[in-house]
Amino acid sequence: MSEKMMPAILIPGKHGQSAGRLLAVLAVLMMVLTGIGGNAVLAEVETSVTVEDPGPGEPAPREGIWVDFFFGTGVDLETRAVTGSAGAFAADGGRVYCLTRVHGMTPPASVTHAWYYEGKTMARVDLTIGSENWRTWSSKSYLPNWTGNWEVKVLDEDGMVLGSAGFEVK
C-alpha cells in the first residue's frame, strides 16, 4: 500500500462493537508494521470504524471479508493508488474515482461498486477480483448541480454489502 493512501476502515456486521474495536486495533497495528503511519498523507475521508447491522432487506456480509475505500480525482496506473485524495469535491462537473482494496475474497469472484447520490442509485459497475488482496476501482462523472452526499457500496456476487463509504460534492 502506498504511503499516500490511508484506508477508511469500515467493518459492517453483527458481531458487536467489541469485535469491531478489536479488528480496528489489528488493522492499525498492521498499517504501523507495514510502514504506513506518521508519514502518510491522510485523505479527508472518514477514518473511524463503523459497526452496522444490515438495513432492512440487506443480508449480513460474509465473515472475514472487508473493504478499504479511497476517493480521489484519478488513479495512478503504475502504483494502483488514488490521486487527488479527498472526502469532498468541487461542484464543477468533475469525476470521482473510488479505489477499493478487497481483503479475504477467494477468486475467481466479482464485486459491484454501487454509486448512490442522496440515496438514489446512479451507477453500478461490476469488477473482477483476482486475489485475496485485490485493488480495483470505478469512477463516476457528476453534474455541477449534483451537490450533496454520495456513497459507494461494495456488493458481493449475492448482493451482500461488504462495505460502504461516502464523500460530498459541494
SSE inventory with pairings:
Elements: E1 8-10, H1 16-33, E2 66-72, E3 74-76, E4 81-83, E5 88-89, E6 95-103, E7 109-117, E8 120-129, E9 133-141, E10 148-155, E11 161-169
Parallel strand pairs: 5-11
Antiparallel strand pairs: 1-2, 2-6, 3-4, 6-9, 7-8, 7-10, 10-11
CATH architecture, by name, is: Sandwich
Largest sheet: 5 strands, mixed
Question: How many beta-strand runs?
Answer: 11
Side by side, the strands of the main sheet go 5-11-10-7-8
Spell out the CATH superfamily. Macroglobulin (MG2) domain
Strand content: 35-45%
Which stretches are poorly predicted, pLDDT < 50 over at least 5 residues?
A: 1-54
Q: What percent of residues adopt helix (DSSP H or I)? A: 10-25%
Query: Could you name the CATH topology?
Result: Immunoglobulin-like
Average residue pLDDT? 77
Radius of gyration: 15 Å
Q: What is the CATH class name?
A: Mainly Beta
Structural class: mainly beta
Please, how many helices? 1
Q: Report how far the terminal alpha carbons are from each other.
A: 29 Å
Order of helices and strands: EHEEEEEEEEEE
Structurally, how many domains make up the residues?
Answer: 1
Shape: globular
